[in-house]
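Hi team,

As requested, here is the filled-out complex form for the magnesium ion run. I kept the field names the same as last time so the parser does not choke. Let me know if anything looks off before we queue the next batch.

— J.
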Amino acid sequence: MKYNIKLKNEKDIIVLRESCKRLAVVLQTLAKEVKPGVTTGYLNDLAYKLITEKGDKPAFLNYQPFGASYAYPGSVCISVNDEVVHGIGGDRVLKEGDIVGIDGGVTHKGMISDSAVTVAVGKISKEDEELMRVTKEALMAGIKAAKGGNYVNDISKAIEKSIPKKYGIVKILSGHGVGYKVHEEPYVPNFDDGVKGPKLVPGLVLALEPMVNHGTDEVYLADDGYTFITKDHKKSAHFEHTILITEGEAEILTSW
Ligand code: MG
Ligand code: MG
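And here is what came back:
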């Protein structure tokens, strides 16, 4: 299997680090704004303001992924409850007990970062707290396995292993390379698909992003052509970091 992988050079990594730092600040600011009564459109517009006032671009705005019929209209993806990923901000009002995934990307001097967090709206149930914790831990398990010399499949296996069997791991969406484009090779499944994949070498930049559901792992695409929703309408959580592969432990570029 031949992979089309674009390793990042030292100069690009310096710029990417800054892109990732800026994204982390944006996500941190948005997370603080999440409360009952706030609309998803407000969060989206605030993201646009925070990113553009620094002279950067929201990486997802007007991005047209392969197969999509129109360009993505939001500045960040905002996905509530049974919405898994790629939700579009609008009039929806967040209410106590919701969980909301915010997935952002910043294009800074041509280098693209990608990171997501799931945030509680007011007080949430113990079960939803647990779902969020499990998903975040799965991301950290994946990062831990992303050591130089390992293979993509080692990350996938570590993510799957860390998630208790009662949860559904979304399989039709995956992590990916990032940096020059929003989505680059290699793709990083969140489960063991039996493919060893490419070797992890210094300069490889990945966005790891487990998506974990309370119920079934099956999802469907909503009529808006972007939002993925769980088939049984149970809640889903999503955490994502952009990481840099080194000779040893991976460096988390979007941490906060
Ligand atoms: Mg993302
Ligand atoms: Mg991503």
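Two things worth flagging: The pocket of magnesium ion (ligand 2) is lined by residues 114, 176, 207, 209, 240 (CB under 6 Å). The longest strand covers residues 99-104.

Thanks,
J.
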